[in-house]
Amino acid sequence: MAALEQDRRKLESQKRGRRRMAFVPITIAGSISFASIGREMSPDGKLNLMHQIASLIEDHDLMEALADRLIAMARPGQGEAALCHALLTDLAQRHASHQAVEMEFLRVDRCRPASPFDREVALFEAQFSTLDESWSDYLKRWSVKAIGSDRLAFCSETMDMMTALKLRFACENELLYPLALEAGRIACTPAPLHSSLPRRLEL
Questions:
Q1: Which chain regions cross the lipid bilayer (predicted)?
Q2: What's residue 41's pLDDT?
Q3: Nearest to 24 by CA among 140, 130, 142, 178
């Protein structure tokens, strides 16, 4: 987990340095048209609705709640191994669905020169590459049997992993999404009735 800790410190430093810019661009007159925000033209000329920033942030809030529940449940004596694994599976499925949505507006068009936004996304993804690999390894390693046989290690690793995930969510909320908003990749609209993820949190 040393690599995760190094990434966490690097990203916290970047986050402090750029926090001041969050959402500022949309307040500058003429930088974004609120009449057209939330819509874009597809190659065939059809009008498509864009993803809403409020929905994306709401997804993060839901996943953070699951992460906090998993941290608490991972402690020895707080929940059966099967319940811990079920909660972890729920979080993993929601996270995968959320990342699939993000890829729809973060995807780089290789046929065009890289934009400033594309370069920022590439940098962001590079900084989180270690976390992505660690998350995948964590999911593979902690089966119901593994959780039951080494609860202390699961508790420790879960604390580290959930903390790293929550840091990523915060960086996306405060750094990546404002950049995507400025670039016209996502919409600044009122919070929807439902986010892109299921609302149910109970097992």
A1: 21-38
A2: 39
A3: 178
**DSSP bridge pairs for 40:** 48
Report how far residue 85's alpha carbon sits from residue 158's, in angstroms, rounded to the nearest whole number: 11
Locate tokens 């994306």: which residue?
A: 56
pLDDT exceeds 80 at position 20: no
As a dihedral over the C-alpha atoms of residue 182, residue 183, residue 188, residue 194, rounded to 10 degrees, the angle is -140
What is d(CA 45, CA 141) in angstroms, rounded to the nearest whole number? Answer: 47
Q: 189, 194, 200: which is closest to 52 by C-alpha?
A: 189
Domain 38-182 fold is Four Helix Bundle (Hemerythrin (Met), subunit A) (1.20.120)
Task: Specify the pLDDT at position 13.
Answer: 54
Cα gap 175→118, rounded to integer Å: 14
SS3 200: coil
Task: Count the Cβ atoms, other than its own, within 10 Å of residue 57.
Answer: 17
CA-CA distance, 190 to 93, in Å (whole number)?
A: 26
Write the DSSP string, 36-60: TTTEEE-TTS-EEEPPBHHHHHHHH
